[in-house]
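User:
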Amino acid sequence: MRGQDFIESAISDFESFYVNGFKIQREYLLGIGLKISGSNEQQKLTIPIDFADMELETDELKFYALLLIGHELSHYINKHNYHIDNSDTETKALEMWADFFGSVIAMSIFILGEKTKSLFSFNPFINKEKGLKTIIDSYEYIYPVFKNTDNSDKYEHSSERLITLQSGIVSFLVRYEIAKKILDNDTNDLAGVYFKYSKAWALEFAKLTFTSPSLMEIVEIRDDLSKKDLKRLEERKNIVNKIHIKLMNNNLEITSGIHPQLRWILGTDYIRPDIEYKSRKHAEKLADNTYM
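Assistant: Predicted structure:
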C-alpha cells in the first residue's frame, strides 16, 4: 500500500487516543526529511513526498514506518521544539528519548490502533509470535538509518539507538500490563508487576536475537558496555526529565487529553512515582530473600 495512506491511518489512530480533539498538524513537502518543523505553537510534522509515495508491501516495512513516525510524534507531543537546546548533550538526550518513547508510540498504534492494525496481514494483539518476528525483522530497515547518523553530533551510536528503541518496545508491553492492573483497581505491588513483565518480555526478545543480523552485530559491538556507558545513559535520562518538567509549565502534563486508560502508556506527565526505580528495589529484595 502507498505510504501516505498508511501514515494517515497511523496518525488518525494516534489522534483517537486523545479525548479532547487533539490533532497533529502536518504537511507533505518535496526535498526534506521526516521531521518536526516550526517552533512553539507553529510546530508541525513535515513528511517527505518520497516517504509518502513509498510502497509498504510487507508487514516489516509497515512497522518500520511506524517507528519513523513514532520518533517524530514523540518530539511533537513532548513539545521538544518549544525547547532551545543548550548543548549537544541536551540534543542527544532528547533524541534518545524520541527513540525510546517513539517506539512506545509505534507499539501503541500497532497494537491499539483500529485502522492501522487492520492494514497488517495478521492481528498483532492475537498472534504474539508473528508480531514479535515482524518487530525484529523491521530492524533490518531501521538499523541502517541509525548507522547513517553515527557521525552526527545529534545522536548516540547506532548500536545504542537500536538498544534504546527495543527498550521502548519492551516498556510498552510492560506499561500495557500495568495499565490493565490499574484499570482493574489492582494497584498492589505494581513494582513487582513491572519487574516480572520486564524480565519476561526481555527474554522473549533475547530468544529472537539470533534471527536478526542487526542485533547480532550489536551484541558483538556492545559486548564491552561499561559502567561508564551506563552512567552516561542515566545522565541523559536525568537531563530529559528536567527538560520535560520545565516543558510541563506547571501543568499536569505536556500535552493534555490522553485517554485515562492510556495515561500509563502515553502520558506526558513526568512528575509521578518511578515504577522502574521501585522495580529495581523489588528485584533487590527478591534477591535478598532468595539467598537468605
